[in-house]
Amino acid sequence: MSIIRISKQFRFEMAHVLMGYDGPCKNVHGHSYELTVTIKGEPIEDLHNPKLGMVMDFGDLKTIVKQQIIDVFDHALVLNSNMPETVTGHLQQHFEKVILLEYQPTSEMMVVDFAGRISSMLPKNLRLAHVLLRETATSYAEWFAEDN
Length: 148
Hints:
This protein has helices spanning 58-73, 85-94, 107-119, and strands at residues 4-16, 29-41, 76-80, 98-101, 127-136, 139-144.
């Protein structure tokens, strides 16, 4: 049987701040993110399996990405946990969805985080092949399994 890749796209809104950055992204700002997740595996051959012919049901992939990424990050303010507590504490008191990450919330670092979150939830017979996180119409970061 052939190895096939399937992809699903997602969208979410998120604000962030790049702590210590020397450009305008040092200020609170938001993006309409687009996330593409690609997995690979062999299509199911079991005639009695309702998923016959599928690598994975797109709905099952959607459930994983929704739980691990979209529900967590959509409409959140994401900050580096090294920011002063006076700032983060104040924001957490006044806003519902403030996320502190152990890394700088750049597209590059988030795509690595997202790849790990998704990979950990996939069935053992499937592998995450590629994750693309588009921050703007012309800017994106990519993670490839073959490089990691």
